[in-house]
Write a structure and sequence with these properties.
heterotrimer, A mainly alpha (about 300), B alpha+beta (about 450), C mainly alpha (about 325), A: about 300 residues, mainly alpha, MetI-like fold, about 70% helix, disordered C terminus, B: about 450 residues, alpha+beta, D-Maltodextrin-Binding Protein, domain 2, 5-stranded mixed beta sheet, 3-stranded antiparallel beta sheet, about 45% helix, globular, disordered N terminus
């Protein structure tokens, strides 16, 4: 190995790595064009959010007639009224959602990483079969499972609790995340495992000390996606929660709407904007972990 | 090789940790409360005596408030009956209801749509109220209203309110463009055409004269009756002929060609309620709406709407309009407390207090004397709608028959061929033929 | 008796010597694997039971309210004669094979740009991810009307080029296009995954290549693509499976209906309509299992081709 590659570069905080990459083949002009392209695309991406925010401070009547982003009339009371418009304060709904989401993330990270390591790095009877089975569970449209699942959970007495929403997450039922982690783990060099085995590590030790830390991007991705999908989940909570005090934010938001009559659009949009804040916040916070590259390739 | 974390002074770390801890602590309390509830902690009040009814309906928070107000009156008078309520928007509501029935976990009292009534009733899922004739008195309902939930002599529900369809016209546009608003009791479809044409021409197609839905069953059903047929007949068959359907499509197409009706593709099917409607946005001068939405539409149109009957009533072979309801209240056949559920139903239907509390959120009260009693306490727009309906109730109108099982698919068929004809991908004759064939097959299958 | 899976896959392989030792080692390996998968096994109970329940239902006439009645293959034969179902298959196939490649390409493209280190990278990333957050929410759908409506922004924009206005959302010929665009617009999810994958590629490879004077394109082809291939593979499979099951976009965009002349009636949407609106749960289950077979076939095909282009570092 040449001297310049002797010590594989450690991951530094964003800026350093970026600046380093930046040095390779990017002129000022290409950087500028890149920024321009990104800005334009960015505006297109942002537009709906801007519209949503601007609609959230318009009075109901104007939302559909006044199409500009700057409200002709301001109605910030949408926020205060919307907060208390339903049977319970939105603080209740937000708390419920957060509890469910946090627990779901923990469950997913825990169970899916275990299963992924098993599939990716361990050999055991029936591995290919189980892997295929796991993938297969992703391929069946969920609607036909709704009723059998509902009956199953009803028999377990779990109706009107959070159990049907949480327990599956602790039991690695999300094939998406298992598959994601499998792919990440498989792209790590096998030499790492070999080195660990030579050092006398059993599979669990290898998993915990070697593979896990290197999978941070996969974990960050799993956490972020779980947050978003569980936060926005509608159907599960709809079916299993009957007591409005248990409702999550999407259920509560839907209660502003009456598809056959008048809906409280302004308030709904206001609460939707508030509902987006945790997701965006979590994403921005979690991004940091998404980008921490591997510390070393582990090559000695 | 190792990362050097930015060095932080000790006090900073301490303060940061303290803040974090406080934040977590503040969040922990409500979080723990949520956990407690969510894992079966709360809500387990199995009081030995007393009955708990489970009541569900669709609607939004505003309707729920009004309904709860009515229920509170009932609970006060019946302290040993508790009512657990749940409501969702119409789509999710249907899904959850079907799921609950499938799992054997049906609610006691529920809102039941006319187009799914027979899907449930024919399979024995609903209680026949005739068996509880002593507990509920339906004599205050007009014949038309009472028969809405009748299937083969059994009564599977009570209308939660009554409505009909009506033609609304924006009188401000009529004035602006110098067109006279026709007389709602005597006008014909040709009169509508003339009116719409005049508006479109005068405004240079900025405002289209009319834009009634061609593809919804509740509109075509009026037309079909006016030609002497019934879309759904008394014995659950499909009764419209190809010629009638073709005439409907041709009529709309003619208006479209002449500019009285907006061109193909003008309407986008995205919902959004009265505020988002084309008439509220000033693109249409008239359309058909269900009368219980009159308040919403008139508000969105700045109070400029007048409510007319559907055209052609005076000239047709037979009256086309009918008394309908947004939904029925039904009781589950497997309900563990049928007597109490029926008692509640009796209260909602016949007690004026209930209707004063709920207002006309579900339409005009089914009981005629109750409707009369509460009329003065209503908003002016609701009074207009109520009077309109009560005027119709007094007349000899055809019965509105329930959809036969398989009937709700027919709404989708009409939707499809209406668009095909609209865009010229099929002729009206072809569309009508296809629709009638599919409809008959759906009912038979 | 534990059969070593490797040798099972390669027929004709010589049986390893010292079977005694092999079996013991094999058993221990197995145990580790099973232990790691223990939560998954338990979880499968929650999935397997409803899974096979729905398979049973596919052979029945089940209207949700009465007990299911066995009717054998009738549901499946009826499917072939159902023109609406065939239409929904067509819609779903077109949607999948157009939007999956396009959205993955967009995701990879933007991820590459973002990976190069821009000032304000975290903000760009968040902004590009936003559409995926809003997804097919009510707000987006309402907005889509304004953007794609007859007098919306898109038509105004096209008008500058003299293109006549088209009713994108209510014309049966174009409605699906708006949904494809909506799907591509939400490329945030695969983009984030690509970004994570790109970050795992050791910088030193690029350094070495740059030192050797490789062009940007060469670097992309020889370093990025191969090393990213497991992630590309994941995103491809994931998008395929998800795309075949598209439901929400169609459902929300057309209020539960199938769009103008059923032009956006996705297979999964039609399935839902049959099951929950028409109370034909047996038919819906048959549809579901047919879709599963279709998806499985395409997934297997993709796995098969993976041999040729997916690189695992082992």
């Amino acid at each position: 190995m040449s001297s310049t590659l002797q010590t594989p570069r450690a991951a530094k905080p964003d800026e350093d790595a970026d600046a380093h990459i930046e040095r390779f083949g990017s002129t000022r002009k290409s950087r500028f064009t890149r920024h321009m392209i990104l800005c334009v695309i960015g505006l297109v991406m942002m537009y709906p959010l801007l519209w949503l925010v601007s609609s959230s401070v318009k009075p109901n009547g104007l939302i559909f007639s006044d199409l500009s982003l700057w409200p002709a009339e301001w109605s910030p009371s949408n926020y205060t009224e919307g907060w208390t418009a339903l049977e319970w304060d939105f603080s209740v709904y937000f708390t419920n959602s957060i509890v469910i989401v946090v627990l779901s993330i923990i469950g997913n990270l825990f169970s899916c990483s275990l299963a992924a390591y098993g599939f990716a790095r361990l050999n055991f009877t029936g591995r290919k079969l189980f892997f295929a089975l796991m993938l297969g569970t992703m391929m069946l449209p969920g609607h036909v499972l709704l009723i059998p699942q509902y009956i199953l959970f009803a028999k377990l007495g779990w109706l009107n609790t959070y159990y049907p929403l949480l327990v599956p997450n602790f039991l690695a039922t999300n094939a998406f995340y298992i598959f994601l982690m499998v792919q990440f783990m498989r792209s790590l060099p096998q030499e790492l495992d070999d080195a660990a085995r030579i050092d006398g590590c059993g599979p669990f030790r290898t998993f915990w000390s070697i593979i896990l830390p290197l999978c941070r991007p996969a974990f960050a991705t799993t956490a972020i996606f779980t947050f978003i999908s569980v936060w926005n989940e509608f159907f599960g909570p709809l079916l299993y929660l009957t007591d409005p005090e248990l409702y999550t934010v999407p259920l509560a938001l839907r209660q502003f709407i009456d598809s056959e009559g008048q809906s409280q659009w302004g308030q709904m949009f206001a609460m939707s904007v508030l509902s987006l804040a945790p997701i965006v916040g979590f994403f921005i916070a979690g991004q940091k972990y998404l980008v921490k590259g591997i510390a070393t390739t582990g090559l000695k | 090789m190792k990362e050097q974390p930015p060095s932080t002074p000790r006090s900073e770390l301490g303060r940061r940790n303290l803040l974090k801890a406080t934040g977590l602590g503040l969040a922990a309390a409500p979080a723990l409360a949520a956990c407690g509830r969510g894992f079966g902690g709360g809500g387990d009040d199995e009081s030995g005596d007393g009955v708990t009814l489970n009541m569900v309906w669709w609607g939004d928070a505003t309707r729920a408030e009004k309904t709860q107000a009515a229920l509170d009156i009932f609970i006060e008078a019946n302290p040993d009956i508790k009512i657990e309520v749940e409501y969702q928007d119409s789509g999710p509501y249907q899904d959850k209801l079907a799921t609950r029935f499938a799992a054997g976990d049906a609610p006691d009292l529920m809102a039941m749509r006319m187009d799914s009534l027979r899907e449930y009733a024919d399979r024995g899922a609903l209680l026949d109220l005739n068996e509880y004739g002593d507990d509920i008195d339906l004599s205050g309902l007009s014949d038309n209203a009472a028969s809405l939930a009748e299937v083969d002599g059994s009564v599977f529900g009570v209308p939660a309110g009554l409505n009909a369809v009506g033609f609304v016209i924006r009188k401000d546009f009529a004035e602006q463009y110098g067109v006279e608003v026709p007389d709602g009791n005597t006008w014909s479809w040709d009169d509508l055409g003339a009116f719409a044409q005049a508006i479109s021409d005068a405004s240079g197609k900025e405002v289209y004269g009319t834009g009634f839905d061609v593809q919804t069953l509740q509109n075509i059903v009026v037309w079909v009756r006016q030609q002497g047929e019934d879309l759904f007949t008394e014995d659950g068959q499909f009764g419209a002929t190809e010629a009638t359907v073709e005439a409907w499509l041709t009529m709309a197409d003619g208006l479209r060609q002449s500019g009285a009706y907006p061109p193909a593709g003008f309407f986008e099917e995205i919902g959004g309620g009265p505020e988002a409607s084309y008439i509220a946005q000033g693109k249409l001068a008239s359309q058909i709406i269900p009368t219980n939405n009159f308040l919403g539409y008139n508000e969105a149109c700045g109070g400029n709407l007048v409510l007319l009957r559907i055209p052609g009533e005076a000239q047709a072979v037979r009256r086309g309009q009918s008394i309908d309801c947004p939904h029925l209240w039904s009781v589950a056949a497997d309900s563990k407390h049928p007597k109490e559920a029926v008692k509640l139903l009796e209260f909602l239907t016949n007690d004026p207090e209930a209707s004063i509390a709920t207002g006309t959120t579900r339409g005009v009260p089914a009981n005629e004397s109750v409707a009369e009693e509460i009329k003065d306490s209503l908003e002016p727009d609701d009074q207009v709608a109520t009077e309109y309906l009560m005027g119709l109730q007094g007349e000899d109108l055809p019965r509105s028959y329930t959809y036969p099982p398989g009937g709700s698919a027919i709404a989708d068929f009409l939707d499809v061929i209406a668009v095909e004809v609209e865009f010229g991908r099929q002729t009206a004759a072809e569309g009508a033929a296809q629709f009638v064939a599919e409809a008959k097959a759906a009912i038979a299958g | 008796m534990s059969v070593d899976t490797e040798s099972a896959v390669m027929p004709g392989a010589v049986a390893p010597p010292a079977p005694q030792v092999k079996r013991r080692r094999g058993a221990r390996k197995d145990r580790a694997g099973y232990l790691f998968l223990l939560p998954w096994f338990i979880g499968m109970l929650f999935t397997i039971v409803p899974f096979f329940a729905s398979l049973y239902l596919a052979f029945t006439d089940y209207n949700l309210l009465n007990a299911p009645k066995w009717i054998g293959l009738e549901n499946f034969t009826a499917m072939f004669r159902d023109p609406v179902l065939l239409k929904s298959l067509q819609v779903t196939f077109i949607y999948t094979f157009v939007s999956v490649p396009l959205s993955l390409a967009a995701a990879l493209g933007v991820a590459m740009i973002l990976n190069r280190g821009i000032k304000g990278l975290p903000w760009y990333r968040a902004v590009f991810y936003l559409p995926s957050l809003l997804g097919a929410s009510v707000a987006v759908v309402l907005l889509w009307r304004y953007v794609f409506g007859l007098d919306g922004i898109v038509n105004a924009f096209l008008g500058w080029f003299g293109v006549p206005a088209v009713s994108w959302t209510s014309d049966p010929d174009y409605a699906l296009t708006t949904l494809i665009i909506l799907h591509i617009w939400t490329f945030g999810s695969p983009m984030v995954i690509f970004l994570a994958g790109l970050r795992q590629i050791p910088v030193m490879y690029y350094e070495a290549a740059a030192v050797d004077g490789a062009s940007k394109w060469r670097r992309f082809r020889s370093i990025t693509l191969p090393l990213l291939s497991p992630i590309i593979f994941f995103n491809l499979i994931q998008s395929l499976i998800a795309s075949f099951q598209t439901f929400t976009q169609g459902f929300v965009m057309n209020n539960g209906g199938g769009g103008p002349a059923n032009s956006t009636l996705f297979y999964n949407l039609y399935l839902y309509q049959q099951g929950f609106n028409q109370f034909n749960m047996g038919y819906a289950s048959a549809m579901a299992w047919t879709l599963l077979v279709i998806i499985a076939v395409f997934t297997a095909l993709t796995f098969f081709t993976a041999k040729y282009w997916v690189n695992y570092d082992s």
